[in-house]
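Worked Example 4.2. Read the sequence first, then its structure tokens.
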Amino acid sequence: MTEKKILAVFGATGQQGGSVINQLVSEPAASLPNISQFHLRALTSRSLPISSASPIQLEQWYRLIGSSPDTDTDNNTTNNTTNTIQVTPQVDFHTPSTLLPALKDVHTAFIMTTPSFTPVTSDDPNSSKEFLAVQNILSAALAQKVDTVLFSTLPNITELSSGKYTHVTPFDDKARAEAYIRSLHPQIKSAFLSLGFFMSNWLTQGFLAPRYDEDTDSWVMRLHVAGGTGIPLVDAGRDTGKFVAAILERGVDGTGEAVLAAEGVYALDGIAEVFSRHTGQRVRYEQVTVEEFRETGLKGFPESLKDVLVEGYSALEEFGHAGKETGALVEEGKRLVRECGLGELVSLEEFLKKEGYVLGKGPRSKQWGS
């Protein structure tokens, strides 16, 4: 019997990494020809009471992280074809001595890094904390002769806006990291997953959530951009793994393909309508001035983070998430998932139902805590 290749998953206890693990150990993904060749290694920064790279039962893994696979999906997550998973705890992006053993004997690595919202003080944009983390990971990957990396990226807003919006550093940092990874070809093969806005943001980020307005007896979402502004949305905690599985099943040829991962592009007005249908109450979207959004909607936020959010949504309105081709790219990603037989993606309305969303309960998410 051929020995299975190791697929390492960074951020295994978060939304993206957790979704990758849940999908790849479950039907239908686990029985696909290419996916079935992998054995998973979960990498987490958490301290867990196990030895490095220890193989443990899946049930023990879910007990350790205090979570369980989502059983209310198209996938049969209760009938896992893979019974064990390797686990490496206390992996630190900025501590090379933890990265080298984490990537030992790994064939493919799914890499997601935590965005940094701190402004870069150096004249060198590549000195950002996230970019340095990616350099550390790739240095370890090259040293351990990892064959392929799949990186969770985002568009470069400075380039997309031709230099008009330069403060959306969480996006630009990931895009620069993507360019760096591409530069390492052919030493290491790569593919890229660019996720849309997380549906869970509307449950965990108070400035996006509907707020009750006594004057109109309605719930109101307020941003400084037009209601027709389109936002690609994805249930990252449930569907990231479907896109990763589809990319791996199709195979990574090393050309650096990029897949935009989203269930659909929703106008802000349309998002409010979905909330109305789900709650049975009047929810509407209202465009406000930039000043009102900064001072009221983002009250208490650091000025640097206000810059990120104001410019980020302004760029979205003017240029689209990934330019004029955003809608077509979303459909292309969805088609890839369908062709691999990985089931339907979660719509915003389905997401709110799964989360048991109730108006006025404050920022919360059943998946990821308050």
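Now turn to a second chain, presented in exactly the same format:
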Amino acid sequence: MEAYNSQVSQRIATIAAHLNPSNHSQTEGLLGLERGNCRAKGGSTGFKVAILGAAGGIGQPLAMLMKMNPLVSVLHLYDVVNTPGVTADISHMDTGAVVRGFLGQQQLEEALIGMDLVIIPAGVPRKPGMTRDDLFNINAGIVMTLCEGIAKCCPKAIVNLISNPVNSTVPIAAEVFKKAGTFDPKRLLGVTMLDVVRANTFVAEVLGLEPREVDVPVVGGHAGVTILPLLSQVKPPCSFTQKEIDYLTDRIQNGGTQVVEAKAGAGSATLSMAYAAVKFADACLRGLRGDAGIVECAYVASHVTELPFFASKVRLGRSGVEEIQPLGPLNEYERVGLEKAKKELAGSIQKGISFFNK
């Protein structure tokens, strides 16, 4: 009976440690549990993933979708507010990933130790009339703080950065990692997957195809004219009228603004962004696992153009970005678009670097 009671106490303590990480040291002291072994029985083998900003508009659906991913064994949810509730809620899902919540700056480092992949949707969303650049000062500071934690606690993790404006926050993250001596350009990726998801959807509508059959490369950056869909390289091969090209390019570039205006002050694209982020995170995890031929678009340190950062197709693998693919043949419309994109992008990159150097 005593052995049974001890077993029950240990199981209860294990569950408590998942849901209340701040209390884990006291519980473990009583029962000799090691946090690293606080695993649900039969928990899946896989990767350890942290979401920073997990209680926000993107963070919550992102956390739910990552809990459903069979490649995730441990899921850490961090935010400055409301993480205990989100953690309790998501931990009830009957999938293998063990969920732990972390609340506030004092628990950031604990949330990051040992992570393989860190996804960052933290920050404030756009409201009607705002550009992604209007978010800059608030989100730039948040990204700096979080990346300092990553440099200290999991410098080898793959980082997926979603916080806008991505064109500027990725250069800021790179500067933080350089200062800490941990910068690996293969492991820092700005998530532009939502542009690709939108492009696939809108092109499929025009062509009358199933969106999952369509692949549209989207290069450049992740705001306005820096978003450059390469409609001449769509798979399956097809051709568009000039009117269709103008319509599709404009719709892909302004898809985010359409959602911001439709939500009328209630936020920006959160659900489609969470979907796109999970699609991209899954590709990164499959790369880490060693799967071959994983190619997605991402905003990375790059030599594809003269700019230090640029979004294009990259091959993902065990070390993150294993190859940055060339842009391929562009038509005249795309070459003009590329020059516009580069001009705008250069300013955004410099803005990020200047913020860090302030």
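Notes for the reader: The CA atoms of residues 132 and 165 lie 5 Å apart. DSSP finds twelve helices and eleven strands in the chain.
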